Amino acid sequence: MVELSSAPPCATDSLVECALKVLQCPDPWQKAEYTYSTVRMWRDGTIKRVRPVEWRHLRAPDRPARSDDKVRVCAPGEAPRRGKGGSLASRQALLHSAVHIENWAVDLSWDVVARFGLRAHEYELPREFFDDFVTVAEDECRHFTALAKRLEEVGSHYGAFAVHDGLWESAAATAHSLPARLAVEHCVHEARGLDVLPGTVAKFANNGDAESAALLRDVIYPEEISHCAAGVRWIRYLYDVAHGRRPPAPPADADAQVEAEAEAEATPLPAASTNGAAAAAAAAGDADAPGGLSARLRELGVGTSSACGEEGAGGGGGDTTAAATSTASTSPLPPSATTGPAAAAPAAGGGAEEASAAWVADARRHVSVEAWFHSLVRAHFWGGLKPPFNDEARARAGFGPEWYLPLAQPAGGAPAAAAHPEAASGAPAAVEADTAAA
Ligand SMILES: [Fe+2]
Ligand SMILES: [Fe+2]
Protein backbone atom coordinates (compact mmCIF):
# COMPACT_ATOMS: atom_id res chain seq x y z
CA MET A 1 0.00 0.00 0.00
CA VAL A 2 1.20 3.47 -0.78
CA GLU A 3 2.06 5.52 2.27
CA LEU A 4 -0.72 7.99 2.67
CA SER A 5 -0.24 11.57 3.64
CA SER A 6 -2.04 13.06 6.60
CA ALA A 7 -1.56 16.52 5.12
CA PRO A 8 -4.74 18.59 4.83
CA PRO A 9 -7.01 18.02 1.84
CA CYS A 10 -6.23 20.54 -0.88
CA ALA A 11 -7.73 21.97 -4.04
CA THR A 12 -5.81 19.65 -6.37
CA ASP A 13 -7.00 16.50 -4.61
CA SER A 14 -9.75 14.24 -5.86
CA LEU A 15 -12.55 13.29 -3.48
CA VAL A 16 -11.03 9.88 -2.82
CA GLU A 17 -7.65 11.44 -1.99
CA CYS A 18 -9.35 13.78 0.48
CA ALA A 19 -11.20 10.84 2.01
CA LEU A 20 -7.91 8.98 2.41
CA LYS A 21 -6.39 12.00 4.13
CA VAL A 22 -9.25 12.07 6.63
CA LEU A 23 -8.85 8.36 7.24
CA GLN A 24 -5.11 8.74 7.70
CA CYS A 25 -5.47 11.56 10.20
CA PRO A 26 -5.43 10.24 13.80
CA ASP A 27 -6.57 13.33 15.68
CA PRO A 28 -10.39 13.46 15.92
CA TRP A 29 -10.52 17.25 15.83
CA GLN A 30 -8.23 17.47 12.83
CA LYS A 31 -10.27 14.70 11.24
CA ALA A 32 -13.28 16.98 11.66
CA GLU A 33 -11.46 19.95 10.11
CA TYR A 34 -10.40 17.82 7.15
CA THR A 35 -13.97 16.62 6.76
CA TYR A 36 -15.44 20.12 6.74
CA SER A 37 -12.89 21.42 4.23
CA THR A 38 -13.44 18.43 1.94
CA VAL A 39 -17.21 18.89 2.06
CA ARG A 40 -16.83 22.57 1.24
CA MET A 41 -14.49 21.92 -1.71
CA TRP A 42 -16.72 19.14 -3.06
CA ARG A 43 -19.84 21.28 -2.88
CA ASP A 44 -18.31 24.42 -4.43
CA GLY A 45 -16.72 22.49 -7.28
CA THR A 46 -13.10 22.93 -6.22
CA ILE A 47 -12.82 19.14 -6.12
CA LYS A 48 -13.71 18.11 -9.62
CA ARG A 49 -13.15 14.41 -9.70
CA VAL A 50 -13.93 11.41 -7.54
CA ARG A 51 -10.59 9.79 -8.40
CA PRO A 52 -7.34 11.21 -9.72
CA VAL A 53 -6.42 10.25 -13.29
CA GLU A 54 -3.86 7.81 -11.92
CA TRP A 55 -5.47 6.09 -8.98
CA ARG A 56 -4.71 2.40 -9.06
CA HIS A 57 -1.84 2.81 -6.60
CA LEU A 58 -4.28 4.11 -3.98
CA ARG A 59 -5.89 1.91 -1.39
CA ALA A 60 -8.16 2.45 1.59
CA PRO A 61 -6.37 1.64 4.86
CA ASP A 62 -7.16 -1.60 6.66
CA ARG A 63 -7.95 0.53 9.70
CA PRO A 64 -8.18 4.32 9.83
CA ALA A 65 -5.64 6.19 11.93
CA ARG A 66 -7.10 6.78 15.39
CA SER A 67 -6.09 8.52 18.61
CA ASP A 68 -5.64 5.25 20.46
CA ASP A 69 -3.08 6.93 22.71
CA LYS A 70 -5.73 9.39 23.94
CA VAL A 71 -8.86 7.25 23.76
CA ARG A 72 -8.25 3.87 25.33
CA VAL A 73 -9.75 0.98 23.37
CA CYS A 74 -10.96 -2.13 25.19
CA ALA A 75 -12.81 -5.31 24.24
CA PRO A 76 -16.57 -4.81 23.69
CA GLY A 77 -17.44 -6.68 26.88
CA GLU A 78 -15.05 -4.56 28.95
CA ALA A 79 -16.46 -1.14 28.11
CA PRO A 80 -17.75 0.66 31.23
CA ARG A 81 -21.45 0.45 31.96
CA ARG A 82 -23.30 3.59 31.03
CA GLY A 83 -26.28 3.28 33.31
CA LYS A 84 -29.67 4.93 32.95
CA GLY A 85 -28.66 8.56 33.18
CA GLY A 86 -29.61 8.96 36.82
CA SER A 87 -26.22 10.33 37.82
CA LEU A 88 -23.86 12.80 36.25
CA ALA A 89 -21.29 10.04 35.77
CA SER A 90 -23.87 7.96 33.91
CA ARG A 91 -24.86 10.86 31.66
CA GLN A 92 -21.19 11.56 30.95
CA ALA A 93 -20.68 7.90 30.05
CA LEU A 94 -23.71 7.96 27.76
CA LEU A 95 -22.49 11.08 25.99
CA HIS A 96 -18.96 9.71 25.75
CA SER A 97 -20.18 6.55 24.09
CA ALA A 98 -22.19 8.62 21.60
CA VAL A 99 -19.17 10.83 20.84
CA HIS A 100 -17.07 7.77 20.12
CA ILE A 101 -19.70 6.23 17.86
CA GLU A 102 -20.00 9.48 15.92
CA ASN A 103 -16.24 9.72 15.57
CA TRP A 104 -16.21 6.24 14.09
CA ALA A 105 -19.15 7.19 11.88
CA VAL A 106 -17.00 9.94 10.32
CA ASP A 107 -14.37 7.38 9.39
CA LEU A 108 -16.97 4.90 8.19
CA SER A 109 -18.49 7.46 5.83
CA TRP A 110 -15.14 8.32 4.28
CA ASP A 111 -14.22 4.67 4.11
CA VAL A 112 -17.24 4.06 1.87
CA VAL A 113 -16.17 6.94 -0.38
CA ALA A 114 -12.55 5.82 -0.60
CA ARG A 115 -12.88 2.04 -0.59
CA PHE A 116 -15.73 1.72 -3.04
CA GLY A 117 -14.78 4.83 -5.00
CA LEU A 118 -11.56 2.99 -5.82
CA ARG A 119 -13.59 0.02 -7.05
CA ALA A 120 -14.88 1.99 -10.02
CA HIS A 121 -14.50 -0.99 -12.29
CA GLU A 122 -16.80 -3.12 -10.21
CA TYR A 123 -19.53 -0.70 -9.16
CA GLU A 124 -19.49 2.27 -11.58
CA LEU A 125 -20.96 4.48 -8.92
CA PRO A 126 -22.48 7.74 -10.08
CA ARG A 127 -21.70 11.15 -8.67
CA GLU A 128 -24.97 11.11 -6.70
CA PHE A 129 -23.65 8.22 -4.62
CA PHE A 130 -20.68 10.31 -3.55
CA ASP A 131 -22.91 13.33 -2.91
CA ASP A 132 -24.91 11.20 -0.49
CA PHE A 133 -21.94 9.90 1.45
CA VAL A 134 -20.23 13.28 1.58
CA THR A 135 -23.42 14.53 3.23
CA VAL A 136 -23.41 11.60 5.62
CA ALA A 137 -19.79 12.36 6.53
CA GLU A 138 -20.63 16.00 7.14
CA ASP A 139 -23.59 15.05 9.36
CA GLU A 140 -21.52 12.59 11.38
CA CYS A 141 -18.82 15.18 11.83
CA ARG A 142 -21.38 17.70 13.08
CA HIS A 143 -22.75 15.08 15.48
CA PHE A 144 -19.26 14.35 16.76
CA THR A 145 -18.30 17.97 17.37
CA ALA A 146 -21.65 18.90 18.93
CA LEU A 147 -21.70 15.90 21.27
CA ALA A 148 -18.03 16.33 22.19
CA LYS A 149 -18.74 19.97 23.06
CA ARG A 150 -21.73 18.91 25.15
CA LEU A 151 -19.61 16.28 26.90
CA GLU A 152 -17.16 19.00 27.93
CA GLU A 153 -20.02 21.21 29.11
CA VAL A 154 -21.05 18.48 31.55
CA GLY A 155 -17.53 18.21 32.91
CA SER A 156 -15.91 15.41 30.92
CA HIS A 157 -14.01 15.01 27.65
CA TYR A 158 -13.49 12.57 24.79
CA GLY A 159 -10.97 10.05 26.08
CA ALA A 160 -12.21 10.05 29.68
CA PHE A 161 -13.75 6.58 29.32
CA ALA A 162 -12.55 3.37 27.70
CA VAL A 163 -14.29 2.55 24.43
CA HIS A 164 -14.69 -0.39 22.09
CA ASP A 165 -14.36 -0.42 18.33
CA GLY A 166 -17.05 -2.91 17.41
CA LEU A 167 -18.36 -0.68 14.64
CA TRP A 168 -15.09 -0.94 12.76
CA GLU A 169 -15.01 -4.71 13.22
CA SER A 170 -18.24 -4.98 11.27
CA ALA A 171 -16.94 -2.52 8.68
CA ALA A 172 -13.86 -4.70 8.20
CA ALA A 173 -16.11 -7.75 7.78
CA THR A 174 -17.87 -6.00 4.88
CA ALA A 175 -14.83 -4.35 3.27
CA HIS A 176 -15.10 -6.64 0.25
CA SER A 177 -18.67 -5.76 -0.70
CA LEU A 178 -20.55 -2.50 -1.04
CA PRO A 179 -23.99 -4.16 -0.78
CA ALA A 180 -22.90 -5.94 2.40
CA ARG A 181 -21.49 -2.70 3.81
CA LEU A 182 -24.69 -0.80 3.08
CA ALA A 183 -26.82 -3.56 4.56
CA VAL A 184 -24.87 -4.05 7.77
CA GLU A 185 -23.63 -0.56 8.62
CA HIS A 186 -26.55 1.50 7.43
CA CYS A 187 -29.56 -0.80 7.59
CA VAL A 188 -28.59 -2.80 10.68
CA HIS A 189 -26.34 -0.69 12.90
CA GLU A 190 -27.69 2.75 12.05
CA ALA A 191 -31.24 1.39 12.10
CA ARG A 192 -30.51 -0.07 15.54
CA GLY A 193 -29.45 3.43 16.53
CA LEU A 194 -32.89 4.66 15.52
CA ASP A 195 -34.49 1.96 17.68
CA VAL A 196 -32.61 2.93 20.83
CA LEU A 197 -32.24 6.67 20.40
CA PRO A 198 -35.66 7.65 21.80
CA GLY A 199 -34.81 5.73 24.96
CA THR A 200 -31.49 7.51 25.22
CA VAL A 201 -33.21 10.87 24.79
CA ALA A 202 -35.52 9.95 27.65
CA LYS A 203 -32.57 9.12 29.91
CA PHE A 204 -31.37 12.70 29.55
CA ALA A 205 -34.78 14.38 29.56
CA ASN A 206 -35.94 12.48 32.65
CA ASN A 207 -32.81 13.40 34.56
CA GLY A 208 -32.69 17.14 34.02
CA ASP A 209 -30.40 17.34 30.99
CA ALA A 210 -32.77 18.92 28.48
CA GLU A 211 -29.90 20.24 26.38
CA SER A 212 -28.39 16.85 25.61
CA ALA A 213 -31.88 15.45 25.03
CA ALA A 214 -32.65 18.23 22.53
CA LEU A 215 -29.38 17.70 20.67
CA LEU A 216 -30.05 14.01 20.26
CA ARG A 217 -33.74 14.41 19.44
CA ASP A 218 -33.77 17.50 17.23
CA VAL A 219 -30.43 17.38 15.41
CA ILE A 220 -29.06 13.87 15.40
CA TYR A 221 -32.18 11.71 15.19
CA PRO A 222 -33.60 13.11 11.91
CA GLU A 223 -30.20 13.03 10.25
CA GLU A 224 -29.64 9.44 11.27
CA ILE A 225 -32.90 8.56 9.54
CA SER A 226 -31.46 10.07 6.37
CA HIS A 227 -28.34 7.90 6.74
CA CYS A 228 -30.41 4.73 6.91
CA ALA A 229 -32.33 6.04 3.92
CA ALA A 230 -29.07 6.38 1.98
CA GLY A 231 -28.24 2.75 2.69
CA VAL A 232 -31.68 1.59 1.58
CA ARG A 233 -31.61 3.82 -1.52
CA TRP A 234 -28.30 2.48 -2.79
CA ILE A 235 -29.10 -1.17 -2.04
CA ARG A 236 -32.26 -0.70 -4.09
CA TYR A 237 -30.26 0.98 -6.83
CA LEU A 238 -27.72 -1.85 -7.05
CA TYR A 239 -30.51 -4.44 -7.01
CA ASP A 240 -32.45 -2.68 -9.75
CA VAL A 241 -29.34 -2.27 -11.92
CA ALA A 242 -28.49 -5.95 -11.52
CA HIS A 243 -32.00 -6.92 -12.59
CA GLY A 244 -32.15 -4.47 -15.50
CA ARG A 245 -34.97 -2.54 -13.88
CA ARG A 246 -33.13 0.70 -14.34
CA PRO A 247 -30.08 1.62 -16.38
CA PRO A 248 -26.93 2.33 -14.42
CA ALA A 249 -26.56 6.06 -13.84
CA PRO A 250 -23.59 7.65 -15.63
CA PRO A 251 -20.51 6.78 -13.59
CA ALA A 252 -18.61 9.52 -11.83
CA ASP A 253 -15.51 10.70 -13.70
CA ALA A 254 -16.93 9.41 -17.00
CA ASP A 255 -15.10 12.28 -18.68
CA ALA A 256 -11.82 10.72 -17.57
CA GLN A 257 -12.53 7.68 -19.68
CA VAL A 258 -13.12 9.77 -22.78
CA GLU A 259 -9.94 11.76 -22.22
CA ALA A 260 -7.86 8.67 -21.57
CA GLU A 261 -9.15 6.88 -24.63
CA ALA A 262 -8.45 9.91 -26.83
CA GLU A 263 -4.95 10.13 -25.44
CA ALA A 264 -4.36 6.43 -25.98
CA GLU A 265 -5.52 6.65 -29.59
CA ALA A 266 -3.23 9.60 -30.23
CA THR A 267 -0.22 7.70 -28.90
CA PRO A 268 -0.69 4.02 -29.77
CA LEU A 269 1.30 1.58 -27.69
CA PRO A 270 3.68 -0.95 -29.29
CA ALA A 271 1.92 -4.05 -30.59
CA ALA A 272 3.48 -6.26 -27.94
CA SER A 273 2.17 -4.03 -25.23
CA THR A 274 -1.30 -3.85 -23.74
CA ASN A 275 -4.02 -2.70 -26.06
CA GLY A 276 -4.16 1.09 -25.90
CA ALA A 277 -7.87 1.42 -25.45
CA ALA A 278 -7.90 -1.27 -22.80
CA ALA A 279 -5.07 0.44 -20.93
CA ALA A 280 -6.86 3.73 -21.11
CA ALA A 281 -10.03 2.07 -19.97
CA ALA A 282 -8.24 0.53 -17.03
CA ALA A 283 -6.72 3.87 -16.09
CA ALA A 284 -10.14 5.46 -16.16
CA GLY A 285 -11.87 2.63 -14.34
CA ASP A 286 -13.69 1.64 -17.51
CA ALA A 287 -16.63 -0.61 -16.84
CA ASP A 288 -16.41 -2.13 -20.30
CA ALA A 289 -13.01 -3.60 -19.48
CA PRO A 290 -13.25 -7.37 -18.89
CA GLY A 291 -15.06 -8.06 -15.64
CA GLY A 292 -16.44 -4.51 -15.29
CA LEU A 293 -20.04 -3.79 -14.44
CA SER A 294 -21.27 -3.00 -17.95
CA ALA A 295 -19.51 -6.03 -19.40
CA ARG A 296 -20.97 -8.17 -16.64
CA LEU A 297 -24.50 -6.90 -17.28
CA ARG A 298 -24.15 -7.63 -21.00
CA GLU A 299 -22.80 -11.08 -20.22
CA LEU A 300 -25.90 -11.75 -18.15
CA GLY A 301 -28.21 -10.40 -20.81
CA VAL A 302 -29.25 -7.42 -18.72
CA GLY A 303 -30.06 -4.40 -20.85
CA THR A 304 -28.29 -1.18 -19.98
CA SER A 305 -30.21 1.02 -22.37
CA SER A 306 -32.95 3.42 -21.45
CA ALA A 307 -35.46 0.77 -22.48
CA CYS A 308 -35.16 -0.43 -18.91
CA GLY A 309 -36.89 1.29 -16.00
CA GLU A 310 -36.24 5.01 -16.18
CA GLU A 311 -35.57 5.80 -12.57
CA GLY A 312 -32.17 7.21 -13.36
CA ALA A 313 -29.63 7.80 -10.62
CA GLY A 314 -30.03 6.39 -7.18
CA GLY A 315 -32.21 9.19 -5.96
CA GLY A 316 -35.50 7.51 -6.84
CA GLY A 317 -35.37 4.93 -4.18
CA GLY A 318 -38.76 3.51 -3.72
CA ASP A 319 -40.68 1.87 -6.50
CA THR A 320 -39.11 -1.40 -7.43
CA THR A 321 -42.24 -2.57 -9.16
CA ALA A 322 -42.23 0.14 -11.80
CA ALA A 323 -40.30 -1.94 -14.29
CA ALA A 324 -41.19 -5.36 -13.07
CA THR A 325 -41.80 -6.51 -16.60
CA SER A 326 -38.08 -6.81 -17.15
CA THR A 327 -37.24 -10.32 -18.34
CA ALA A 328 -34.19 -10.34 -16.11
CA SER A 329 -36.23 -9.51 -13.05
CA THR A 330 -38.36 -12.58 -13.48
CA SER A 331 -35.53 -14.89 -14.43
CA PRO A 332 -32.94 -14.97 -11.69
CA LEU A 333 -29.89 -17.00 -12.53
CA PRO A 334 -29.84 -20.62 -11.49
CA PRO A 335 -27.71 -21.25 -8.41
CA SER A 336 -24.98 -22.83 -10.51
CA ALA A 337 -24.45 -19.59 -12.37
CA THR A 338 -24.17 -17.39 -9.33
CA THR A 339 -21.60 -16.31 -6.88
CA GLY A 340 -22.51 -15.85 -3.25
CA PRO A 341 -21.30 -13.05 -1.04
CA ALA A 342 -18.32 -14.91 0.31
CA ALA A 343 -17.11 -15.89 -3.15
CA ALA A 344 -17.73 -12.35 -4.32
CA ALA A 345 -14.91 -11.03 -2.20
CA PRO A 346 -12.15 -9.42 -4.23
CA ALA A 347 -9.09 -7.86 -2.72
CA ALA A 348 -10.21 -5.04 -0.46
CA GLY A 349 -9.20 -1.60 -1.57
CA GLY A 350 -9.50 -1.96 -5.33
CA GLY A 351 -6.75 -1.74 -7.89
CA ALA A 352 -5.91 -3.78 -10.96
CA GLU A 353 -6.75 -7.02 -9.19
CA GLU A 354 -10.43 -6.18 -8.93
CA ALA A 355 -12.74 -9.10 -9.36
CA SER A 356 -15.62 -9.11 -11.75
CA ALA A 357 -18.86 -7.51 -10.64
CA ALA A 358 -19.90 -10.69 -8.84
CA TRP A 359 -22.42 -8.77 -6.77
CA VAL A 360 -24.59 -8.58 -9.88
CA ALA A 361 -25.01 -12.33 -10.01
CA ASP A 362 -25.60 -12.44 -6.28
CA ALA A 363 -28.35 -9.82 -6.50
CA ARG A 364 -29.96 -11.76 -9.35
CA ARG A 365 -30.28 -14.86 -7.19
CA HIS A 366 -32.96 -13.09 -5.20
CA VAL A 367 -36.52 -12.39 -6.27
CA SER A 368 -36.80 -9.17 -4.28
CA VAL A 369 -34.52 -6.54 -2.84
CA GLU A 370 -35.73 -7.52 0.62
CA ALA A 371 -34.67 -11.14 0.02
CA TRP A 372 -31.22 -9.93 -1.10
CA PHE A 373 -30.97 -7.79 2.01
CA HIS A 374 -31.83 -10.77 4.22
CA SER A 375 -29.12 -12.80 2.52
CA LEU A 376 -26.53 -10.05 2.96
CA VAL A 377 -27.32 -9.59 6.63
CA ARG A 378 -27.35 -13.30 7.38
CA ALA A 379 -23.98 -13.67 5.70
CA HIS A 380 -22.28 -10.72 7.37
CA PHE A 381 -24.03 -10.03 10.65
CA TRP A 382 -24.35 -12.70 13.24
CA GLY A 383 -26.93 -12.50 15.92
CA GLY A 384 -30.28 -11.50 14.51
CA LEU A 385 -31.86 -8.09 14.90
CA LYS A 386 -33.02 -7.08 18.33
CA PRO A 387 -36.61 -5.92 18.80
CA PRO A 388 -38.42 -3.73 19.58
CA PHE A 389 -38.04 -1.84 16.33
CA ASN A 390 -38.73 1.83 15.73
CA ASP A 391 -41.17 1.16 12.91
CA GLU A 392 -41.99 4.83 12.40
CA ALA A 393 -38.36 5.93 11.96
CA ARG A 394 -37.55 2.91 9.82
CA ALA A 395 -40.54 3.67 7.58
CA ARG A 396 -39.27 7.24 7.18
CA ALA A 397 -35.91 5.76 6.14
CA GLY A 398 -37.68 3.83 3.40
CA PHE A 399 -37.79 0.30 4.70
CA GLY A 400 -40.75 -1.47 6.18
CA PRO A 401 -41.08 -4.54 8.41
CA GLU A 402 -40.65 -6.87 5.44
CA TRP A 403 -36.98 -5.85 5.51
CA TYR A 404 -36.21 -6.47 9.17
CA LEU A 405 -38.85 -8.68 10.81
CA PRO A 406 -37.63 -11.87 9.08
CA LEU A 407 -34.22 -11.18 10.64
CA ALA A 408 -35.49 -10.50 14.14
CA GLN A 409 -34.36 -12.50 17.11
CA PRO A 410 -37.16 -14.62 18.51
CA ALA A 411 -38.35 -13.05 21.75
CA GLY A 412 -35.94 -14.20 24.44
CA GLY A 413 -34.57 -16.86 22.12
CA ALA A 414 -31.53 -17.72 20.11
CA PRO A 415 -30.32 -15.48 17.28
CA ALA A 416 -32.21 -15.98 14.05
CA ALA A 417 -29.08 -16.13 11.93
CA ALA A 418 -26.95 -18.26 14.22
CA ALA A 419 -26.85 -21.16 11.81
CA HIS A 420 -24.95 -19.28 9.12
CA PRO A 421 -21.67 -21.03 8.38
CA GLU A 422 -19.63 -17.85 8.83
CA ALA A 423 -20.92 -17.65 12.38
CA ALA A 424 -18.74 -20.57 13.37
CA SER A 425 -15.59 -18.73 12.34
CA GLY A 426 -16.66 -15.58 14.10
CA ALA A 427 -16.13 -13.62 10.91
CA PRO A 428 -19.25 -11.45 10.97
CA ALA A 429 -19.16 -9.00 13.80
CA ALA A 430 -22.08 -9.09 16.19
CA VAL A 431 -21.91 -5.62 17.62
CA GLU A 432 -24.55 -3.13 18.46
CA ALA A 433 -24.75 0.59 18.09
CA ASP A 434 -26.71 0.48 21.31
CA THR A 435 -26.25 3.94 22.70
CA ALA A 436 -27.18 6.38 19.99
CA ALA A 437 -27.35 6.43 16.27
CA ALA A 438 -24.08 6.51 14.44
FE1 LIG B 1 -25.29 8.13 10.87
FE1 LIG C 1 -24.36 10.41 13.58
Question: Topology of this structure?
Answer:
Elements: H1 15-24, H2 28-43, H3 88-117, H4 120-123, H5 127-153, H6 166-173, H7 178-205, H8 210-242, H9 254-266, H10 276-283, H11 293-299, H12 327-330, H13 358-364, H14 369-380, H15 391-397, H16 401-404, H17 421-425
Helix pairs in contact: 1-2, 1-3, 2-5, 3-5, 3-7, 5-8, 6-7, 7-8, 7-14, 8-13, 8-15, 9-10
The chain binds fe (ii) ion (2 copies).
One fe (ii) ion binds next to helix 8.
- Distinct small-molecule ligands in the complex: fe (ii) ion
Biggest sheet details? none
Q: Any idea what the shape is? A: globular
Question: Could you spell the SSE succession in H and E letters?
Answer: HHHHHHHHHHHHHHHHH
* Stretches with pLDDT under 50, minimum 5 residues: 269-287, 305-355, 414-437
Verbal overview:
This protein has helices at residues 15-24, 28-43, 88-117, 120-123, 127-153, 166-173, 178-205, 210-242, 254-266, 276-283, 293-299, 327-330, 358-364, 369-380, 391-397, 401-404, 421-425. With 438 residues, it is mainly alpha-helical. The two termini are 29 Å apart. Mean pLDDT is 79; it is low at 269-287, 305-355 and 414-437. Bound molecules: fe (ii) ion (2 copies).
Give keywords.
438 residues, 51% helix, disordered C terminus, binds fe (ii) ion
Describe what is shown at a glance.
This protein has 438 residues and is an all-alpha fold. The protein contains 17 helices and no strands.
